[in-house]
Amino acid sequence: xxxxxxxxxxxxxxxxxxxxxxxxxxxxxxxxxxxxxxxxxxxxxxxxxxxxxxxxxxxxxxxxxxxxxxxxxxxxxxxxxxxxxxxxxxxxxxxxxxxxxxxxxxxxxxxxxxxxxxxxxxxxxxxxxxxxxxxxxxxxxxxxxxxxxxxxxxxxxxxxxxxxxxxxx
Length: 169
What we know:
Order of helices and strands: HEEEEEEEEHEEH
Strand content: 35-45%
CATH architecture: Sandwich
Number of strands: 10
Distance between the termini: 76 Å
Largest sheet: 6 strands, antiparallel
Number of helices: 3
Mean pLDDT: 84
Strand order of the largest sheet: 1-2-3-4-8-7
Structural class: alpha+beta
């Protein structure tokens, strides 16, 4: 029995030493969960346009004034401009969400020539996480009050989103 004591003691010390040398796992940094991709809306899609002064990306009906959200970059100007047509009295903010990222961009308001509402305009940095997520997942949503409008690219039109961000930064 006395012969077992050194063996048990040595084994116990080895097990404790092995446990002490194991490092605790480093926790992963928090990443917001990706929201499920919304379904594209029939007749609406992302449309890319290049012109001498810059580029634009608009979600709406092709060749019409029915535009839900538009983004513009002017050549030689940092950042991008956001435009959103809303009801009169809406908070002067363009609130965007894409794949778990969200941001509220303070906006200026002016009467709309296309509707009875107002046009909100805001500036933003194209490298902001909400735009980088949009670039990756192909959809973005706009919140007006508690109403969410999702703007998803149809299959094949994701290239319009990539062309915009490639040109815009």
